[in-house]
Amino acid sequence: MDISTLLDRGTVEVVVREDLEKKLKSGKKLRIKFGIDPTGSDLHIGHAVVLKKMREFQDAGHQVILLIGDYTAKIGDPTGRTETRKALTDEEIQKNMKSYTDQAGLILDMDKIEVRYNSEWLGKLQMEKLLELTSLKTVAQLLHRSDFKKRMKENTDISLSEFLYPIMQGYDSVVLKSDVELGGTEQTFNMLVGRDLQKHYGQPQQDVITVPILEGLDGVEKMSKSYNNYIGLTEKASEMYGKTMSIPDNMIIKYFELATYVPLDEIKNIKKALEQGENPKNLKMQLAREIVTLYHDKKSAEQAEKEFTEIFKNKGLPENIELKKLKGNKWNIVELITEIGLSPSTSETRRMIQGGGVKVDGKKIESHKDEIDVSKEKLVQVGKRKFIKVIGK
């Protein structure tokens, strides 16, 4: 892996680039840190942008460290938040930690990775040490952060624990003796705190690489489960393929660069073809194949494409549609959709119905109050890609 690929592909900023280039040219095995708090159970291809960069460093022979913030998850990273996060229980954190490491294994070589948990040291932090750490940063410096500044302006509370978060993340870098920290652009402040703390403790300062935020399927908001605009790493191949096909045309090149391993020279040709009038749909199909193959395999990608073509070109249905048996024959449409798992919430189901995105046996549902009789088999469709057959027991 050449240095320019490590530092340029899918990156926004390298601090300090000249220093990091010297380290990489020296042949030294560097310690590459990426921290993630287990605040949810699913990772998506937006998270994978930084995991892919980690894999590049791993393939180049460096030691990558996946830091699971099981202790900092109890506080919640205030980055980008307009209010204090709800505290997670230990049980929720344990469950999410297991899910995160399993999903990270889809991208990283877990046999060559150092997985650490910051409860190892933060859970044992004495008050004397904590006071020492907090003395290294001023309130004015912390309030310089855009999210804190915004909350102060709007008279929204900021907890003292949130003030501690950047200091704790920085101290992680001290304990791990990291040479490089990776993170999204929204993490720049926290990662630079790590440099400051390492300097205080007489360590070489870590360099920082930021990666871009990947917008979700709407092409506007960042990819997030809360916005329901994400492609999950463990989703079915057909769902992953179909979601990729739904991205706006102006996101095709960015997805190729950040969500695949397609060489940059080939991406330049794809961009040129798009500018010269190539049908965006053909390029999205190539993109969808690349993404599905990355998280499943080539055969699954081919099957997903075949299914997609059948549905959308030939106005057909998937070859294999799951049949779910329900207790009872009379169902309110909102309760039915939620019960069979075609929508994450009742509010989302209502929104889909209002937008004309719910059908039963090919007939559009007009009202969230509609009752459905499933004494005989019914075909339920949500959006363009989700189908389930249902029948009452």
What does this structure look like?
This protein is α/β, with parallel strands linked by helices. The protein folds into three domains: 3-211, 3-Layer(aba) Sandwich (Rossmann fold), CATH 3.40.50; 235-312, Tyrosyl-Transfer RNA Synthetase (Orthogonal Bundle), CATH 1.10.240.10; 323-392, RNA-binding S4 domain (Structural Genomics Hypothetical 15.5 Kd Protein In mrcA-pckA Intergenic Region, Chain A). Helices cover 45% and strands 15% of the residues. It has a six-stranded mixed β-sheet with strand order 1-6-5-2-3-4, sandwiched between helices. The longest helix has 17 residues, at 160-176. The chain is globular and about 70 Å long. Mean pLDDT is 88; it is low at 80-84.
Low-confidence stretches: 80-84
Shape: globular
Percent of residues in β-strands: 5-15%
**CATH-defined fold name of the largest domain:** Rossmann fold
Count of extended strands: 13
The structure class reads: alpha/beta
Count of alpha and pi helical runs? 17
Oligomeric status of the shown chains?
single chain
Cα distance, first to last residue? 58 Å
Task: Please state the CA-atom Rg, rounded to the nearest Å.
Answer: 24 Å
